Amino acid sequence: MSRHPTVKWAQRSEKLFITIDLPDAKDVKLKLEPEGKFSFSATGGADNIPYEIDMDLYDKVAVNESKANIGSRNICYLIKKAENKWWSRLLKQEGKPPVFLKVDWDKWVDEDEQDNKHGADMDYGDFDFSKLNMGGDGDFDLDADGVDKDEGDDIDTEGTEEAAPSTSEVPPSSKPEAKA
């Protein structure tokens, strides 16, 4: 009996991204038919365990314009849709998808955000991120030992001729507690 590898998917109006996670796959066979039938088989692992997938995609695809890439960690398939439209799901069958099928959130873009640029490609213009106050109230200043400079004020040094002890000489009971 064969197993199912994890399959991740994402879409745009004109294409599908299908990634099959199967490290060190051997004897990879991919088949894509114009009506949307997608088949995959391979062996993987030290024991050459057989893996198979048969899926009926939601709609028709352009087989000649689709591309596959077989890598050492996964198999990536870029499938061109026959019509440039968003699919409501990946598979024709309604209901709960198979457990091996997952959304590829690294590639996912919502339909209304498709034309926007995301991530590293995004143009931020003249926006200066250094002007953002990213936490803290500005008076929290740690010295090289990681101790707030204002915390040394609590040490009682009256009646002694020595200076206040350094943080490495403070007994454990009087060291400031680390806060999570």
TrEMBL record:
GO-annotated molecular function: Hsp90 protein binding; protein-folding chaperone binding
Pfam families: CS
Subcellular location per the Swiss-Prot or TrEMBL entry: Cytoplasm; Nucleus
GO biological process terms, semicolon-separated: response to heat
Acidic residues bias locations: 140-161
Family note: Belongs to the p23/wos2 family.
Described function: Acts as a co-chaperone for HSP90.
Protein name per its UniProtKB record: Co-chaperone protein p23
